[in-house]
Amino acid sequence: MVSPTPKEIFIQGITHDGRTFRPSDWAERLAGVMCSFRPGGPQPDSHLSYSPWCVPTVINGIKCVVVRAELRDAEVMAWDFVMNFARDNNLQVAEACLVPDAVPPAGTRS
């Protein structure tokens, strides 16, 4: 069964005309701004880690920020902020679901 709405949005560090977005640390900066938006609200020292709802990563050599749909449900203004960031900077956005790396069966080597 296919979910009617994506669980995650991928903001990619590639503009619609194919250029790499700069500065090179844009994903970490964006995720850092969003660090206090997390399940249960801001926690002591939450500024020291990324929110599980907005995480920088690299996929196929492209810097991305994975934004989980729970952010939209919990903090619509924060969701609008990251979506407007992508739109204002002409970044490619994909709706998808991040699939975790497969764990090899017990007794096998990867």
Secondary structure layout:
Elements lengths: L7 E8 L10 H8 L20 E6 L2 E7 H6 L1 H13 L2 E6 L14
Antiparallel strand pairs: 1-3, 1-4, 2-3
What would your notes on this structure say?
This protein is α+β, with helices and mostly antiparallel strands. It has one domain: Alpha-Beta Plaits (2-Layer Sandwich). The chain is built from three helices and four strands. It has helices at residues 26-33, 69-74, 76-88; strands at residues 8-15, 54-59, 62-68, 91-96. A four-stranded antiparallel beta sheet has the order 2-3-1-4. Strand 2 (54-59) and strand 3 form a beta hairpin.
CATH topology: Alpha-Beta Plaits
Instruction: Indicate the low-confidence ranges by residue numbers.
Output: none
Termini separation comes to 30 Å
The CATH architecture designation is 2-Layer Sandwich
Shape: globular
Total strands = 4
> What is the beta-strand fraction?
15-25%
| Count of helix runs | 3
The secondary-structure class comes to alpha+beta
H/E element string?
Answer: EHEEHHE
State the domain count.
Answer: 1
